[in-house]
Amino acid sequence: FSLPLSWCLHLSPSVLVRCIMALSEVHWDHQIPLPKLAPVRAKLTVALVALLCFINSYDGEFVFDDSEAIVNNKDLKPTTPLNNIWTNDFWGSNLSSNSSHKSYRPLTVLTFRLNYLLAGGLQPIGFHMLNIVLHAIISALMIDMFAILIGGLAYDEKDKIVNLAPKTSLLAALFFAAHPVHTESVAGIVGRADLLCALFFQLSFLTYCKAFNTGRGLFTTPNNHSPCTVILYSTKDCDVVRTGLLTRLALMALGGLAMLYARWRIMGTGPPAFTEVDNPASFAENIFLRIVNYNYYYSLNAWLLLCPWWLCFDWSMGCVPLIKAATDWRTAWLLLLWCVLIGLTSQALCSQDSQRRRTLTLGLVLLVVPFLPACNIFFRVGFVVAERVLYLSSAGYCLLLAYSLGHCCCRWNKYKKLVCVAVLLLLCVYVARCALRSHQWRTEQSLFTSALSVCPLNAKVHYNVGKNLADRGNTTAAIRYYREAVRLHPSYVHAMNNLGNILKERNELVEAEQLLSKAVSIQPDFAAAWMNLGIVQNSLQKFEEAELSYWNAIRFRKKYPDCYYNLGRLYADQNRHLDALNAWRNATVLKPDHSLAWNNMVILLDNTGNLGQAELIGREALKLLPSDHTIMFSLANVLGKLQKYKVSQHKHFPFFPPSAVLYHRWGKLELAKKHYELSLKLDPEAPGTRDNYNMLRRKLDQLQRSAP
User: Fold this and answer.
1) What is the dihedral sign for C-alpha 672, 676, 679, 685?
2) Which of 128, 335, 659, 687 is 20 to 30 A from 646, comparing alpha carbons?
């Protein structure tokens, strides 16, 4: 538009600003069925909706990937040097290791470490609350970002950014705050990486936009310019803009290249090693079918944005069967996806409405560009579908959805009330689905079982359900799920290993040996399966095979203290005492707090009459494990045999049941009686203590009756 110069000269700056704003506002914005809120109130509303959706996950447990990224990650502990964060991956493994997934997220790990320090340990509430708050902040900032993407950059007379699409940006931000596909990123603690990615993107974008305001913005009136200059630019101004644009682009390109180079130097040139199980389409030999399956994956991601009802913590291992022929009916979905994308793109490029072109173009860019690293085009990724990678891309979808509703209101104004009801209903459904899904993420039991109805063909789902049941002691049910996992995926070595372990504990040794033997034949470097196979073979008295299995485990995992411990047990069963002691010593060198290895060394030396050596080993162990009652008992027994009663009666066993047993064994019956009574006073239900006490009482009565 243009204003006559004479009008501009007679208008005050504030009136001129209001005039231009009225003419420049997005034309469909006033049709959006939402109230026009003040900026602060709008952000508070969006933040409260975000909190409402996910607040019930605040007291959840550490679930799924949280175990490896947080619970078992040594980089979180204050005793670990802070520099390790910059050389290790997200899971705490060195980036140069062959087993590393090369997921380099040091800032995310740093926030985990901060949570650990503030809580004084692994308290999940603090971790969850920070995720929820981050999502609320990101959702609120989405209003500013959407406003710029829809209406462009505009400033008032106070140099503040003006929102030319207040209702559309608010609606899009509400959709983003309540979208159920975000549950994995918010309720799952490891999703903080996606939250921080979105937050830093927003801050970078808003900071970049703010840098445009040089005192002559669209709605500013500098002192040395008349009000009419708000809409007029000279050739000199355009040259400055062009020069500035080139400078900014050059700086951003150099910064991006510097970051890529730094990451390349840190993580090395080797790509992460993924298996066919992680991403089967990427291993398809036929390139045409590979492309078809990739596009089918894209359509599944689009469906999760459109209808986020079928959500699952894992989409691998048969959850999404491969398309193996062009005649597969599922190819219709990828054709539909591309028809929609092409239609939107044509509207973005060819529409006569500049505001429509702008909104569609930037909405599509925001939808597609953040998804590119997960699309298998540039490199192979380690998943089929991952809801967390849609966190930022969903912002583009929410922007397009809000635009579509505004367009519908403009075109069919008489149905505006119906659209208002539909919007309210959709938001309510989103909030309810978020609340339900975030509740499922609170525990591993509810998370894993919720996936059975979504991905019944997913072997990993059955495996995780079985593992959770086994951890809670329900091994009978766990066996059923492990067997189903192996049936669905016959080469699932981890399911075979866990099933073999349960069968071993149930003394079903023959089947356990078969399963474990099959596991190591499929994956020869599976060290844990080799060790478990050795344990089973030892129980079957196949000593030579067991020894070979143990050494195979150690060959594939050099630092394997538990395997050295079990190897020592094998040698002890064969009366190879020196070999057993050497194996247990290796276990304690690799793991100084390996209580069982220390205790077995003391017992073996005791049984073979090497009491002096047993005493030295026991004292060495107690320096490292001063509160280990098992080692105390074994050492006290040795000291008693050496007739060092005063030492063995030291503070280690003041009123503890083992001291009574030792006195009983040494024939000090009155002291044994005293300690049994003190022990029962402290714990009347102590197992075996009352039986031993009654036995001692009977023996004392017999001695009194037989006394002259």
Assistant:
1) positive
2) 687
Cβ neighbors of 543 (< 8 A, separation 6 or more) are 537, 570, 573, 574
Most distant CA pair in the chain: distance in Å? 134
Q: Any idea what the Cα angle at residue 55 is, between residues 54 and 57, rounded to 5°? A: 75
Per-residue CA distances from 633 to 602, 603, 613, 661, 680 (Å): 10, 10, 16, 9, 18
List % helix, strand, coil for the chain (3-state, nearest 5): 70, 0, 30
Summarised one tens digit per residue, pLDDT across range 187-225 is: 999 999 999 999 999 999 998 888 776 544 444 333 333
Q: Determine the average pLDDT of the residues in 153-163.
A: 76
Which residues are paired to 161 by β-bridges? Answer: 155
Q: Could you tell me if 534 and 566 are in contact, meaning their C-beta atoms sit under 8 angstroms apart?
A: yes
Cβ atoms within 10 Å of 422's Cβ, excluding its own: 14
22 or 55: which leads in pLDDT: 55
- Tokens standing for residue 292: 């078809």
**CA dihedral over 17, 18, 20, 26, signed as positive or negative:** positive
550 contacts 570 by C-beta, under 8 angstroms: yes
**Contact of 618 with 591, CB cutoff 8 Å:** no
The answer to pTM > 0.85 is no
Reference 478, options 505, 457, 454; nearest CA is 505
Q: pLDDT tier at 660 (50, 70, 90 boundaries)? A: low
CB atoms within 10 A of CB 373: 12
Structure token digits, residue 639:
């000291």
As a whole number of angstroms, the distance between CA 371 and CA 341 comes to 14
CA 169 – CA 402 distance, rounded (Å)? 8
Residues 6+ apart with CB under 8 A from 587: 561, 562, 564, 565, 568, 594, 597
* 423-459 as b/e: b if 16+ CB within 10 A: beeebeebbebbbebbbbbbebbebbbbbeebbeebb
Which residues, at least 6 apart from 157, have a Cβ–Cβ distance to it below 8 Å? Answer: 13, 14, 17, 219, 220, 221
What ranges in 307-443 are assigned the alpha helix state H?
331-350, 354-368, 393-411, 416-440
Burial of 705 (0-12, 13-18, 19+ CB in 10 A): exposed
Rounded Cα gap, residues 690 and 698, in angstroms: 12
Calculate the alpha carbon distances from 247 to 148, 239, 240, 242 in Å: 22, 12, 10, 9
| In contact, 174 and 386? CB cutoff 8 Å | no
Rounded CA gap, 58 and 133, in Å? 10
SS3 label, residue 557: coil
Angle (CA) 505 506 510, round 5°: 95
Is there a contact between 170 and 33 (Cβ–Cβ < 8 Å)? no
CA dihedral 198, 200, 205, 206 (to 10 degrees): 110
Cα–chain center distance at 407:
39
Task: Please write the tens of the pLDDT for every residue from 423-444.
Answer: 899 999 999 999 999 999 999 9
Rounded to whole angstroms, the Cα distance separating 619 from 628 reads 12
| CA–CA distance, 218 with 160 (Å, rounded to integer) | 11
pLDDT tens-digit series, residues 564-608: 999 999 999 999 999 999 999 999 999 999 999 999 999 999 889
- pLDDT reading at 417 higher than 90: no
Judged by DSSP in three states, 328 sits in coil
The burial class, CB within 10 Å (0-12 / 13-18 / 19+), for 489 is: buried
Q: How far apart are alpha carbons 526 and 497 in whole angstroms? A: 9
